[in-house]
Amino acid sequence: MASKEYYNREFAAKDFLNGITAHTTFEACTFDGLLLPNTIFEQIDFIDCSFINCDFSTSQWPGSGIKNCSFEGCKLIGIDFTVCQPFLFHFSAQECNLSFAQFSKCNMENFTFTNCEMQEVDFGHAKLKKAQFSACKLTGSLFEHTNLEEADFRTAREFAIHPEKNKLKGARFLATNLEGLLAHLPIHVE
After folding, report:
1. Fewer Cβ atoms within 10 Å of its own Cβ: the N or the C terminal residue of the chain?
2. How far apart are CA 85 and CA 108, in angstroms?
């Protein structure tokens, strides 16, 4: 099957509605205002791309590459990122909703999440070394057997991380949010 390649292009909602096919590569492209919930992005490579105010809720990305991309103001609700290509998998998210996303066993070293809604996200067995969770709300998110070494939770809130079930060497917390590390204990923190 022949592949298509797009380089340094801007796509708005009206430009992208014709659909995309597998084996397409987008490099250094900007996507603005796409409303594509429940869409299947199969075997598509996104390299150094920016997504702004897009809705990809419950979309599927089997075999697709998300390589050094950024999401800003996007809805990424319920996406299973574990089916993406693991090679060079990396993105940052700012003011996005990633609730109910799946990152189990993903390598997410140096990922940056800023002011994101991240309820019920599965980070089980993920590698989040040096990840930053700046002003993120992590209600009900699962951290189990997760590598959180040198991760930054100083401004994160509503997380529950069991210190004995995760790697936390060098992780950063504030004294005011340490209750997230004590939630597994039968005590009340005031």
Report:
1. C
2. 13
Domain coordinates in residue numbering, the chain: 1-12+23-96, 98-182
Kindly tell me if the per-residue pLDDT of 2 is higher than 80.
no
Give the separation between CA 54 and CA 51, rounded to whole angstroms: 6
pLDDT computed for residue 3 by the predictor: 77
Phi and psi at 164, nearest 5°, equal -80, -10
- Averaged pLDDT score across all residues of the chain: 91
pLDDT at 177: 78
In the CATH scheme, what is the homologous superfamily, with its name and number, of domain 1-12+23-96? E3 ubiquitin-protein ligase SopA (2.160.20.80)
pTM: 0.92
In the block, tokens 């940056």 appear at 112
Question: b/e string for 26-45 if b means 16 or more Cβ within 10 A?
Answer: beebebbebebeebebbbbb
The tens digit of pLDDT for each residue in 46-99 reads 999 999 999 999 999 999 999 999 999 999 999 999 999 999 999 999 999 999
Residue range 98-182, CATH number:
2.160.20.80
Q: Are 143 and 120 in contact (CB under 8 A)?
A: no
With the C-alpha atoms ordered 52, 115, 140, 152, is the resulting torsion angle positive or negative?
A: positive
Q: How far is CA 57 from CA 18, 39, 77, 97, 139, in A?
A: 19, 9, 5, 9, 19
